[in-house]
Write a structure and sequence with these properties.
CATH class of the domain at 100-287: Mainly Alpha
Number of helices: 10
CATH topology of the domain at 100-287: Hypothetical protein af1432
Order of helices and strands: HHHHHHHHHH
Bound molecules: fe (ii) ion
Radius of gyration: 48 Å
CATH architecture of the domain at 100-287: Orthogonal Bundle
Length: about 300
């Protein structure tokens, strides 16, 4: 073998060797690649799974939200139903209370042969005066409900005195006067604002602004405004109606008395307000006028 041949042989050997190395390297690279790509596949597969799980979880959450929303709406509905039921019950309780109070007043008045409309008119006049002297709507409404009870104490006064035609003698009058205190005693123990107001009205509706009234003979603003207002309303209506012992007065005579008693029997401010609101007061009188049914003669 010549030198050239040797060179070629060693070159080949070198090249062969390199090719082998290269082949080995390439094989390693391929293996490495396929291992990595398998890992990648695995990772992609895993993340796909996680994504699906996430989506499912999201759907589940949305369903839960929807359920919660429905539940909330249902709950709101139930709460609203409950509230309106309570409101309804409250209205019923208030209406019942009003009716009971009104009926008690009517019983008191019927004992002295007043008409049912007397208490209605007194109630309305009281509210007009209450609003006119600055009371708010709620309080004025309460006084409207309480004032019909001013004479509730009369249920404890004997018929013979209550329905006596003509004037009372001194004893009878003293007896009659007790209705104010008796009414107060009947009502004063109640914790209800309305009945407490009614107790005050019963107690103080015969007191006089300048003194001289009963049962306590108190004066001026010592007399509760409820008592002062009911006094004007009650006397105005009583004078304008027929009673077993007298005929109704005409308006001019009543107005003259009111002017005369301004600052004496009655709170002067209330008399002024009475005249300022006379139209409204006369409208009430007209609306609740007493109707007397005539008995037809032989059909
Ligand atoms: Fe009275
Ligand atoms: Fe009365």
């Amino acid at each position: 073998m010549g030198n050239d041949d040797k060179l070629i042989a060693s070159l080949e050997a070198f090249l062969n060797n390199d090719v082998e190395t290269l082949k080995g390297n390439i094989e390693k690279l391929i293996k490495d690649y396929s291992r990595k790509s398998r890992r990648l596949d695995k990772i992609i597969h895993q993340s796909d799974k996680q994504q699906r799980e996430l989506l499912e979880l999201n759907e589940e959450l949305e369903r839960t939200y929807a359920e919660l929303d429905e539940y909330k709406n249902h709950l709101e509905e139930k709460v609203e139903e409950g509230i309106s039921e309570i409101k309804g019950l409250n209205v019923e309780i208030e209406e019942t209370q009003k009716e009971v109070v009104f009926t008690m007043g009517a019983i008191g008045e019927s004992r002295s042969k007043e008409t049912g409309n007397h208490v209605k008119r007194v109630a309305e006049y009281s509210k007009i005066l209450a609003l006119a002297c600055g009371m708010d709507e709620d309080e004025a409404e309460m006084l409207k409900q309480a004032s019909p009870m001013h004479d509730i104490g009369k249920i404890a006064i004997p018929d013979a005195i209550l329905n006596k035609p003509g004037r009372f003698d001194e004893d009878e009058f003293e007896h009659m006067k007790r209705h104010a205190e008796l009414g107060y005693e009947m009502l004063r123990h109640s914790p209800r604002t309305l009945l407490k107001a009614a107790a005050t009205v019963a107690y103080e509706h015969h007191e006089k602004w300048a003194g001289g009234g009963y049962p306590r003979n108190i004066q001026g603003e010592d007399i509760h405004i409820y008592g002062r207002i009911t006094a004007v309303a009650d006397v105005f209506d009583a004078l304008g109606s027929d009673r077993c012992y007298k005929k109704a007065w005409d308006d001019e005579k009543i107005f003259a008395l009111f002017k005369e008693e301004r600052g004496k029997q009655f709170d002067p401010k209330l008399i002024d307000l009475f005249f300022e609101n006379l139209n409204a007061i006369l409208d009430v009188r007209e609306k609740y006028r007493d109707l007397f049914t005539e008995t037809p003669l032989n059909g």
